[in-house]
Amino acid sequence: MNGMAIQSEFEPYVLLEERNRIAEEIHDRICPHLFGIACAVHSVEEDWSGMTEEQKLGQLREIQEAAAAATRELRATIYDLSLSEKGGVSWIHGVESLLASQAKLNGVRIRFRTADSDRRLPIHHQKALYRTIAEAVGNAIRHGASSIIDVKLTLRRCSVTLRIADNGKGFDMDSRPPSKKDSGFGLYNMKALASSLGGNLQIDSSVGSGTRIVVRLPLDQARDERGQTLKNG
Q: Do residues 146 and 119 touch, judged by C-beta distance below 8 A?
């Protein structure tokens, strides 16, 4: 089989892989913003009759700002996808943008702390951490009724650790173990995602005491020593 024939045979698979990658990028970076907007609109609809005109205008402005943030994120995603080198140097900025939007839309306080480092996280770690942050914060807001959420990312030589804690209503761990029945990207899927990268996810929660999530992912030390692994962007 000549080179042209081989290229023709594998081209559909390459295109499918690229399409899936683009779909993942849009899902990870845009959908959380849109979900936050949808939740905010629903909240305004429920509280509309009891809100003052000033409160209505203020909330509508917050929704408008969130839509603008989603648009900026979409443009950034398109720009990043057009780059030939996959570095994901803006992924931390994407997290910051998401958390700032969620905080404003839902009237909660979200603190994000990360180490000042010039190291670069592998693209799969970036995606896993972003998805986990988006899902955990979304759960804390819509299910936990949290008003304060703390997100901390710690980078070490051979590992990265993500800690997320909230002051929400929590839940009974014994009566609700993570399972495949969780809707959407739930607790079970977060655990599975961490496991797929050789890491683990621990959840600690109790009724009335909030929820704490800790994700630990190992890093390739050899790659790190060659300077190819981490960067916060």
A: no
What pTM was computed for the model?
A: 0.62
- Domain range spanning residue 203? 3-225
pLDDT tens digits for range 96-137: 888 988 898 888 999 999 876 556 788 888 888 988 998 899
The strand ranges marked E within 84-219 are 109-114, 148-155, 159-166, 200-205, 211-218
Instruction: Measure the CA–CA gap between 77 and 71, rounded to whole angstroms.
Output: 10
Query: The CATH number of the domain where 217 resides is what?
Result: 3.30.565.10
Report the C-alpha gap between 11 and 18 in whole angstroms: 11
Do 203 and 213 contact (CB within 8 A), yes or no? yes
Mark the ranges of the chain whose per-residue pLDDT is less than 50: 1-15, 83-89, 183-184, 222-233
230 occurs within a structural domain: no
Give me the helix-helix angle, 187-196 and 123-142, nearest 10°. Answer: 160
